[in-house]
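Sharing a chain and its predicted structure for anyone who wants a worked example. Both blocks are below, sequence first, tokens second.
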Amino acid sequence: MADRAAARRQTLLGFAAAATIAVIWSGFNIVSRLGGRSELTGFDLGALRFGVSALILFAVFLRRPTAIPWQQLVLLSMFGGIGYSLMVYCGFTLAPAAHAGILVNGGIPFTTALVAWVLLGFRPNRGVLIAFSLTGLGIALMAIHSLTVPTATASRQWQGDILFLGGALCWGVFGVLLRMWRLRPLDAMAGLATVSALLYLPVYFLWLPTSMSTAPTAQIILQGGYHGIVVAICGGLLFTYAAQTIGPVKAALVLALVPGITAVAAVPLLGEPIDAITVFGLVCVTLGAVIGAIASAPHPPARSGDA
């Protein structure tokens, strides 16, 4: 009985962590879009994220530098650090925040399930398949929207959408690797921040385009603080905990609630209106998230005497 209560408590904490990440990632979409519309490049946003988080977590990494094998750290950094961040940040320079909410956060359940199927043998049940179908419909609507709606940036918006989907794939791989290797959250985040900075910052300073010198100081502080501390450290720790307690697929499905939060917040904060197609896509993705979370939830075994 005590073991069952402890397991139930751990599951609830895992879903609470995933719900908190949903709020953090909704803010991530808004703040990133602000950065994408500023003088900063997507490469600048990546440098701020890795630089700030590495400065804070480097001391933690030095306490246990061999806690995680370097091969694993490099893979985590390439997918969950550099690959995910650069694709998404560059996508925000081309496409609106609502698209990111649907394609990144709505796409993560698909990519996570695909990678989990290949690496973990995950087999979705009927409820999860229905959830994925609804989310897939929402993603398809966004693809049609980008290719058919005439706007001043329509010719480049679809490129941002592709980058968003690439970021979702990178994060799906990252989540499954965390589950496979059962890493301590703090070790994983400290190693991810440090190795991502070591791999990325030299390339950034030597070869990548930057507008850091002309960007407003307030914008640099906002982007560095939110991405380097709130997202990379707080969000990373919470996602690692959620992925290990409730599994990457369930965690990813809860995160699919982010599109609705993002789209609503983008109207007053970014001045980005949403049309009927986007609303329908949001409804599909949100319903998919709710159905998927319910279908994935563990069911207690039937007691003797139960029907």
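Comments welcome. The chain has twelve helices and no strands.
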